Amino acid sequence: MPDFCPKAYAHGQMSSPNRYFLATDFLNLRSSATKGPGKSLAMKLAELHSTPAPIPDGYNEPMFGFPVSTCCGETVQDNSWKSSWAEFYAENRIKYITRIAIQNHGYGDSLDALVEKLATTVIPRLLGEETLGRIQPVLIHGDLWSGNHSEGQIEGQAGSEHLVYDPSSVYGHSEYELGIMRMFGGFGSNFWKEYHEVIPRAEPVKEYDDRLALYELYHQLNHYAMFGGSYRESAMFIMGPLLRKYGG
């Protein structure tokens, strides 16, 4: 989708220790160009989420994960391949980021116990194949809050477009994208109406809000791992109702 994100041309290590570079198309986010003929942000995101993931080398079907590690903020994520989305989300996201959070800030016993119960009861119940069926992995931006999208112009292209950048990419469930969008807000009712006309809420629709809360949990835990503070309480606030409702 060349009108949705900048193209990368080169990357590598700089002469200074622990410094790296990434050369991409120039994004003019203050462009005075008239709006181009491109699609809305909702339609572009829906198109991204409609494109099936490729089959990774060494496998015979699309998998959940990514060929390389990606970062969400300063967190280096574990994107090792899994055939089950519920397993990937439990092991590679929720339990993984909880270990980092505890390592950085402590409070291990109560947080770890809640996360372990959530990973073994709530996640299989809400995200397992018996509930959602066989999820088809699609490309996820992974960190789509208001600071990572804008209207602007990619150098060399005509007109202003809706653009995204600074991704935390993974092949996963399309609704996973919506967790951080829900967390920080900024997407109006027209956006959601247009998006869901193309990508309907997964069945069972009555559990949609609970799935989004579960997906938001990763980002609350990640922010706690990075910044500490009240993000821990926000994560606990999400887990409580989910555990009472689905924790057995």
The major beta sheet can be summarized as: 3 strands, antiparallel
Question: What is the CATH C level class, in words?
Answer: Alpha Beta
Count of extended strands? 9
Give the class from helix and strand content and strand pairing.
alpha+beta
CATH architecture: Alpha-Beta Complex
The amount of beta strand, in percent, is 5-15%
Fraction of residues in helix: 40-55%
User: Biggest sheet, strands in spatial order?
Assistant: 3-7-8
Query: What is the CATH topology classification name?
Result: Aminoglycoside 3'-phosphotransferase, Chain: A, domain 2
Output the number of helix runs.
Answer: 8
Alpha carbon gyration radius: 19 Å
What is the number of independent domains?
A: 1
Q: What is the arithmetic mean of pLDDT?
A: 94
Structure explained in plain terms:
Keywords: Kinase, Transferase. This is protein-ribulosamine 3-kinase. Belongs to the fructosamine kinase family. GO terms for molecular function: kinase activity; protein-ribulosamine 3-kinase activity. It catalyses: N(6)-D-ribulosyl-L-lysyl-[protein] + ATP = N(6)-(3-O-phospho-D-ribulosyl)-L-lysyl-[protein] + ADP + H(+). The protein is an alpha+beta fold. It has a single domain, classed as Alpha-Beta Complex (Aminoglycoside 3'-phosphotransferase, Chain: A, domain 2). It has helices at 41-48, 85-105, 108-127, 129-132, 178-184, 189-198, 208-227, 231-246; strands at 8-13, 20-24, 27-28, 71-72, 75-76, 138-140, 149-154, 161-164, 170-172. Strands 3-7-8 form a three-stranded antiparallel beta sheet, with no helix packed on it. The longest helix has 21 residues, at 85-105. The protein starts with 7 loop residues before the first strand and ends with a helix. The mean pLDDT is 94.
